[in-house]
Amino acid sequence: MRSYFIRQALMNIRKNLTVHILSLGTIVASLLILGAFLLLFGNLNNWLQRCGTTLSMSIYLKDGISEYRRDKVDSYIRGLPGAEIKQFISKEEALKDLRAALGDDAGFLSRLERNPLPASYEVVFESKGTYGVNPEKIKGELEKLDGVEEVQYTKEWLKKFEGFLAVVRLIGFIIGGLLCLCVVFIVTNTIKLTLYSRKDEIEILKLVGATDWFVKSPFLLEGMIQGTIGGILAVLTLFLGYLILPTENISLLGLTPLDFVFLPAGYLILILILGTVLGVIGSFIAIGRFFEV
Amino acid sequence: MTGPSGAGKTTLLRLIFGAEKPASGHILINSINLNRISRPKLDLLRRKIGFVFQDFKLLPKKTVSENVAIALEVIGLRPKFIRKKTHQTLRLVGLAHKEKAYPLSLSGGEQQRVAIARAIVKDPLILLADEPTGNLDPQLTMEIMELFKSIHQKGTTVVVATHSQELLQGTDCRTIVLNHGKISEDAL
């Protein structure tokens, strides 16, 4: 009996091949967009978490700070638990970096009467030590030191970015939901076309005593096959895209480089299951009211 | 079963088949009341009823053998048994040599015999035939009626609906005449 259903489902697909290929293409595109979104969002989320555990701080010094005061600030920083001075950027180096960053647009910098950029320390707190570190407190203490102009740390920015990610997540859910509806709609219509092309056969099957499920099963299977193949192709295309597109050394706003990795196995299985489930739901809706013989 | 067009012959067959429900009264088949039967049980009951249509209702893209086998496939029998039983039934209706042919390549009489083979392949308790000879010439009509007689002799109740009075002349079967939905004559 099972082989009969599979035979019938494959025969349906073969007989309406063009319609099925077109519908499959749309399913793949929808699941691919969904997968790409998961890939991007997952990586940004991981990156955010890594940034969150590594605290980095920029300590800007006042102009004309004496050597003595700078040594004081330097030794204060070294005395902070888990702190490591990654770099001291002098006023001249800061200007040089800005000039390099602006490229052709850096012309106006040569017309400046004096260098407005402050010298700064780039300090990183080791992950282990970060748990005990209160950045707000350190910031306050550092800003009290004579010669320190301003202190900024990554978490201030990360908080804003987390808010942005929450919006992206919401948009993702909405787009994902719409794409899922789109897949269901496509499968429903494809199966309806198959149903209409086999209307006579269905009528005869019912007349010779076929149960509803006997007639429905090949169509459910057809939707399931379509959804599963769509899921597999979407995952393969996504992986191909991941291999082809340059995903190494992506650095965001000078922070920890984005270590772009492919979707974990759980997410891939989720896309495959989603394709199958949406395929079954689509065909289920299509056959719902077709069997009133 | 005979009567003029619109007398209710087809409706009665559809009522027996469970395709329609009576507005009043009851349809009993082997003590099963069709008014109260559930959908799955009706499907199972239909496996014991064969139906032959005037327009044959054959699937043009399936071979003669596949058209007949459909009635056994829905029961979920083994493919080997289905092949054997289909061949036996087609031999019974004299079409064993046309197994691989497609319905549209057959004559009207042959197509009707394929439809009869499909209806009797599952050894039904009742065989319903709605104007089975309506599209056939007198010679083929006689052949089909002979076939029904031989099926009846094997123990199947055969109900044939026809508007043709000539078909019933000289027959020794019970004849019911319908008129405006009522039995106007019932003769053995």
Relevant terms:
heterodimer, A: 293 residues, alpha+beta, four-stranded antiparallel sheet, two-stranded antiparallel ribbon, 10 helices, B: alpha/beta, three-stranded parallel sheet, two-stranded antiparallel sheet, 7 strands
What does this structure look like?
- The complex is a heterodimer of chains A (293) and B (188).
- With 293 residues, chain A is α+β, with helices and mostly antiparallel strands.
- Chain A contains 10 helices and 6 strands; from the N terminus they run ααβαβαβααβαααββα.
- Chain B has a 3-stranded parallel sheet with strand order 3-4-5, sandwiched between helices.
- Chain B starts with 8 loop residues before the first helix and ends with a strand.
- In chain B, a hairpin with a 2-residue loop joins strand 6 and strand 7.
- The longest helix of chain B has 16 residues.
- Chain B is α/β, with parallel strands linked by helices.
- The model of chain B has no long low-confidence stretch (mean pLDDT 89).
- In chain B, helix 3 packs parallel to helix 5, helix 4 crosses helix 5 and helix 5 runs parallel beside helix 6.
Outline the fold blueprint.
The complex is a heterodimer of chains A (293) and B (188).
Chain A: H1 2-15, H2 17-53, E1 55-61, H3 67-79, E2 83-89, H4 91-102, E3 120-125, H5 127-130, H6 135-144, E4 148-153, H7 154-197, H8 199-207, H9 212-244, E5 250-251, E6 257-258, H10 265-287
Antiparallel strand pairs in A: 1-3, 1-4, 2-3, 5-6
Chain B: H1 9-17, E1 28-29, E2 32-33, H2 39-46, E3 49-52, H3 64-73, H4 79-92, H5 108-120, E4 126-130, H6 138-153, E5 157-161, H7 165-168, E6 175-179, E7 182-187
Parallel strand pairs in B: 3-4, 4-5
Antiparallel strand pairs in B: 1-2, 6-7
